[in-house]
Amino acid sequence: MTELSLSNSELQQFRAMIHEIAGIAMSEAKRQLIAGRLSKRLRHFGLGSYGDYYQLLMKDKGEMQMAIDLLTTNETYFFREPKHFEFLREKLVTELRGSGPLRIWSAACSSGEEPYTLALLLASTLQGRPWEILASDISTRILDKARAGLYPLDAAQGIPGDLRQRFCLQGTGRNEGLFTLDASLRQRVQFRQINLNSTLPDVGMFDVIFLRNVMIYFDADTKRQVVQRLRARLRPGGYFLVSHSESLHGITDELESVRPSVYRRPHA
User: Which residues bind S-adenosyl-L-methionine (predicted)?
Assistant: First the structure.
């Protein structure tokens, strides 16, 4: 089958769609990514152009979700940006030692490595205090993968050896070459589909919110709105972490900078 090209007008349609729904600003430089990720769906339906596929999306909510899934999925791995987890470990044994349940939100969890890293950290550091993790993403397909919690064995190399021995289980049979985390950890992570670009559901309040490696895809106005929504879910004194390549400078003045990429909601 001849490879179809994505015309300028078709590119603009998909850029506008993903911005309106997910708040993601895709530049013209993303033409190949958009075309590549959606091409298999054109083949699946036997369509002759990307414009035909766009028209299908406008009529089929299920396929719209599929397209959103394909365009928003990002790579991640265990203990990515380790300084954040070192910071959190330090706070868990000092000011976050309270008695009520500790709640952390991984607000763009992708395939689950970030929330499961947090689960490993909490299980090994918090002694006696109950804890729970909310992990959310806009992609239903990637959330299914995260819930399954199965990863290639080489992905475990990023996990410290003592935690790997205590909490990681090697797959057998049809799961040969894979590993998962102990069920006692996995069941403490709740996965939910949440679109950060719209009104948030009532998920309660959190001590720590991770919003890493997602704001780079938002324009300035969307960043302000997303951060404002999430800040309202952060307890006074709670921590808000973004990627090392991101900053909240010029985005909000309601969170104080603690160190690069780490912010705190002041006590009232």
Answer: 74, 76, 80, 114, 137, 195-196, 212-213
